[in-house]
Write a structure and sequence with these properties.
Keywords: Signal. Pfam families: MlaC. Residues 1-25 form the signal peptide. With 222 residues, the protein is α+β, with helices and mostly antiparallel strands. Helix content is 52%, strand content 14%. The chain contains 9 helices and 5 strands. A 5-stranded antiparallel beta sheet has the order 1-2-3-4-5. Strand 4 and strand 5 (177-178) form a beta hairpin. Helix 4 (63-72) crosses helix 6 and helix 5 (78-86) crosses helix 6 (95-117). The radius of gyration is 17 Å and the shape is globular.
Amino acid sequence: MKALFSRVIALCLVGSAVMSSVTIAANDEINTNDPYEMIKQVANKTFDRFKQDRALIDSDLSHLKVIVNEELMPYVDYKYAAYKVMGQYLRDTTPDQRDRFVEAFEGYLVATYAQALTEYTNQAVEFDPATDFKNEKIVEVNVQIIEKGRPPIKVQFKARRLKDNTWKAFDLVAEGVSLLASKQSEISNLIRQQGIEAVISMLNDKTKQKIDRQPEKEAAAA
């Protein structure tokens, strides 16, 4: 399942432009008032940046973290996701611990997304039509990843309405399995077993890990 999420993240972040006629210039603003457009535009901008910086990426894979930080993370509600991941242990932490956990979780997400981008190989992504969301607080953006020789992968991006009526994404559901829920189970168990400080250190260590290309043999089996 971890391999599936890595592929899904990579394909959705930089594959959407293959099926979309929308081109987002570098200085164009993302429409955060429409969750459907926001997700498509963010994916397209990330794709364009990926192509633009290809030489930098080839010389230093850590540049993928720069792309994720600048093009993706402003539209991810990582604080909300971090609190959800902490689950019942949130109320047992101090404000300082919560702040440091959110920061560590943000860095962990950046590293996770950057590593996933190394698996992109020009697949196509189809977005389902938007629905009326004016009275909704949570919206699911349905996507299908189309790859020759494989059945389509069904994906949902979940986005939530903020107090200022803008939207941010907070979860990715691949083939019915929530990335947020799986991380909540994993990390809350670690907090229970080792404590919040140990988990913060673990997330910081994972953030610092070097980005490596997955060997072709492993990528094919993923």
